[in-house]
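Technical annex, item 7. During the second reporting period the consortium partners agreed on a shared format for inverse folding records so that results from different sites could be compared directly. Each record opens with the tokenized structure and is followed by the designed sequence. A conforming record, contributed by the partner at site C, is shown below for reference.
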């Protein structure tokens, strides 16, 4: 298994992800000398294109999506690219594809960035053309199904051709620097772990807020909704990293073994523990934006916002709620995890009039990467009218702490790990299926209850019921 691939085959090579993320990431890796000199990248998709046309297509994508300070000489990178037209649904073109791929000296990594309905036919095509041998790794981009049953079908189809240790399921949140830093924070420091449990933590909040709306992904998004687009994957992975036991090693098996235990310990959600919403016209950053139904062009029951009160039923987290919320067209783009510690057991200052607030750790994942711990401190003075205490932040801005270090986008890291065969930041089958099991139960609860999304104004923090979901427990969402 430990080979560095010398061929990378991209399915969906003309798609949005390829243009926005995959080609720019591969270029950036190449520019930094991180790709093997003999790595060849073969793109394939339905469009008719020659190698030269694909190189031009790739150049246009790089010019459009690479930040100006990361564009360099493109010729060498473009020379790595070639292209094969393929209708993935019929077996016919796969032999030609195999010819184009040639015989890898060390191994082949395949990246499927296509509609999941093509996964099965593609695997069959690859098998028929002998492209599933022991030196081939298979990488799958989300969505991996629309529910547990369809995800199992996909997983079964892939498992028919590849063993689990050669399957790489992407959740791009795992490639984000600050998400990995969560593990460093928890397990490379002594001070947090003894407090990281129900005895000392009151609750956890995980927010993934976006300002964007549909972004032209009309059909996909309207079928998925926020719970399947964001909670099933990214948010549950964040939750698992926050809640898991310390793995014995930072390796694929140990980390994923611990994450899956958390995912399996998620308590089925009951009525009243979720709120869904759909945005109406409003304004974000002073700009008027249309409502979801206007963007879509028809009325719809799809949720663009969801808030959930989740529980992890194990010893460590007994009685600690995890409040999750995500939505489109919220006031700002922010992904963060808030660890709200419990109050001190006894205030020695109570008799002197001081009020206390419990400590809070805020882990900012994006756009700002920072870690803030709020501590109580005494307000300077002679305290003639009683002691005054106030919360002060202990703030680490990661870009300042590591100035000079290159901040890489998630796909750079994940593509390099794929080519080199490190599965640690990829999602294992049992994790995906545990995620779906929990999500399916929520969706069937919504169906039984006839729950439809409440409206919220674009630019607000979702329906007021989401605020109430936390407030009835005495919790305020961090904003
Ligand atoms: C994707 C979702 O998985 O993640 C999108 O399909 C969402 O709807 C995106 O916008 C968010 O990713 P990021 O990295 O911008 O937070």
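Designed sequence (site C submission):
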């Amino acid at each position: 298994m430990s080979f560095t691939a010398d061929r990378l085959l991209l399915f969906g090579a003309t798609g949005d992800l390829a243009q926005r993320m995959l080609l720019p990431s591969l270029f950036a890796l190449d520019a930094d000398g991180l790709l093997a000199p003999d790595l060849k990248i073969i793109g394939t998709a339905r469009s008719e294109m020659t190698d030269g046309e694909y190189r031009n297509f790739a150049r246009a994508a790089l010019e459009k999506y690479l930040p100006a300070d990361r564009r360099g000489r493109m010729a060498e990178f473009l020379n790595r690219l070639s292209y094969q037209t393929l209708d993935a649904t019929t077996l016919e073109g796969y032999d030609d594809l195999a010819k184009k791929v040639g015989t890898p000296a060390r191994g082949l990594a395949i990246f499927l960035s296509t509609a999941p309905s093509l996964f099965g036919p593609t695997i069959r095509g690859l098998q028929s053309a002998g492209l599933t041998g022991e030196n081939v790794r298979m990488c799958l981009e989300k969505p991996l199904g629309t529910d547990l049953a369809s995800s199992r079908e996909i997983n079964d189809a892939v498992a028919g051709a590849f063993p689990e240790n050669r399957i790489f399921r992407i959740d791009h949140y795992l490639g984000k620097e600050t998400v990995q830093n969560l593990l460093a924070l928890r397990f490379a420091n002594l001070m947090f772990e003894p407090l990281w449990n129900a005895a000392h933590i009151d609750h956890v909040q995980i927010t993934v807020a976006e300002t964007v709306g549909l972004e032209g992904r009309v059909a996909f998004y309207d079928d998925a909704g926020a719970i399947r687009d964001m909670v099933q994957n990214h948010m549950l992975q964040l939750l698992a990293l926050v809640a898991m036991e310390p793995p014995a090693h930072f390796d694929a098996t140990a980390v994923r073994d611990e994450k899956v235990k958390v995912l399996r310990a998620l308590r089925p959600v009951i009525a009243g523990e979720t709120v869904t919403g759909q945005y109406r016209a409003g304004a974000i950053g002073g700009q008027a934006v249309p409502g979801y139904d206007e963007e879509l062009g028809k009325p719809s029951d799809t949720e663009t916002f969801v808030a959930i009160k989740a529980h992890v039923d194990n010893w460590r987290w007994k009685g600690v709620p995890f409040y999750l919320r995500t939505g489109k067209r919220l006031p700002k783009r922010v992904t963060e995890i808030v660890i709200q510690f419990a109050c001190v057991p006894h205030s020695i200052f109570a008799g002197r009039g001081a009020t206390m607030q419990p400590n809070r750790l805020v882990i900012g994942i994006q756009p700002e990467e920072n870690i803030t711990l709020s501590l109580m401190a005494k307000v300077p003075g002679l305290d003639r009218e009683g002691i005054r205490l106030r919360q002060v932040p202990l703030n680490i801005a990661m870009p300042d702490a590591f100035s000079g270090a290159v901040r890489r986008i998630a796909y750079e890291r994940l593509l390099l790990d794929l080519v080199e065969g490190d599965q640690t930041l990829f999602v294992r089958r049992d994790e995906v299926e545990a995620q779906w099991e929990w999500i399916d139960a929520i969706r069937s609860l919504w169906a039984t209850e006839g729950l439809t999304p409440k409206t919220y104004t674009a630019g607000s923090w979702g329906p007021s019921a989401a605020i109430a979901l936390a407030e009835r427990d005495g919790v305020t969402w961090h904003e």
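The chain has two domains: 7-141, 174-471. Residues 218-243 form the longest helix (26 residues). All partners now use this format for quarterly exchanges.
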